[in-house]
Amino acid sequence: MHATPFNQAKVALLGGLLLLVLAGCDARGQAQDNATPPPPEVEVAEVNAEPVTIWGAFSGRVEAPQTVELRPRVSGYIDQVNFEEGELVSEGDVLFVIDPRPYKAHVQLAEAELARMRSQLTLASSEAARSEQLWERRAISREEFEQRNAAKTMAQAAVNSAAAALQSAQLDLEYTQIKAPVSGRIGRAEVTRGNLATIDATLLATLVSVDPLYVYFESDQQTAQDNPHGQAVPVRIGLSGQQDFPYRGQLDFVDNQYNARTGTLQYRAQVANPDGKLRPGQFARVEMPVANASAALLVDQKAVLTDQDRRYLYVLGDDNKVERRTVETGRRVGGLLVITAGLSEGERVVVNGLQKIAFPGMEVLPQQVAMRPDPAPMVVATAP
After folding, report:
1. Quick one: which of 218, 241, 295, 299 could link to 49 by a disulfide (CB 3.0–4.6 Å)?
2. DSSP letters of 60-113?
3. Domain residue spans in the chain?
């Protein structure tokens, strides 16, 4: 079968169209291959110098300003226990009562003896007065006159002795009531009703004051050299397991020498505890201002990357190309880090979009943002 001129023309036309289509596709592919991708968008922030108060973090322990071991001042059997173990008591509350009956009898005996001695003093005083009149008339001898005056002096001494004995007996009777010497929290009763308590020996209970409380902590020598030693330095206190520092206190004592074994200096803060949530013996976390920086460079900590033991970040140049910059970091300020070396004020740092940077010197499309949303005039730094 032979092709007609019409069929030949049709085949030639289709072939030409196919060539044109292939040529167009090839041109578009080459154009796409030769096109340069746009620079990636990243967020950059300008570095500003700001005043910073550096706060150091320490471990401490809560202690009571006053810890009292209650012991009897007289011996006897416990007659009453007037408290619930673990409750708060006030200064002057009667906590224990020792059987007072023997001591009441001692007081009555001492009162009677004092009355007898006073009677003898009255008689001796009367005889001494008469002897003085008789001596003036020389009706008695000098020896008798002196004897009657001596008897008066001895009677006065006996009265004084009896009065002292009565006072001692009354004091012993008063000591049968063991009172709280300070306000605080009472522990468990070591001796219960009916048991013998021996003077100065038997431990009845332990009482600790709870408001305010002390927090003791220690600082290393380098930190202690720079931090404030004055009174009323503010501190922030949190308990073990707490994320924040809900309690506020003030530094009220700094030891006068370093511990030779540990090389540390002891500090003490006083913290109010009206609700009794803090208890002596608890471990605490303490933050205290240790230094002031008038112009600290702060950078979002997300911008700081780590390469083994070195830290670095990307700084944006005037040509919108990023430069890898090794820096030294200090303490943490919330979500910011203090940069101590390697960076200058006014430079721009990449804070978001770091994953888009493939290599140093890469061009980027910067979007200016604030280093932190709340530019307060003063910030505080904690230990890293």
Report:
1. 295
2. EEEE-S-EEEE--SS-EEEEEE-S-TT-EE-TT-EEEEE--HHHHHHHHHHHHH
3. 41-55+293-381, 57-65+208-288, 73-98+178-207, 101-175
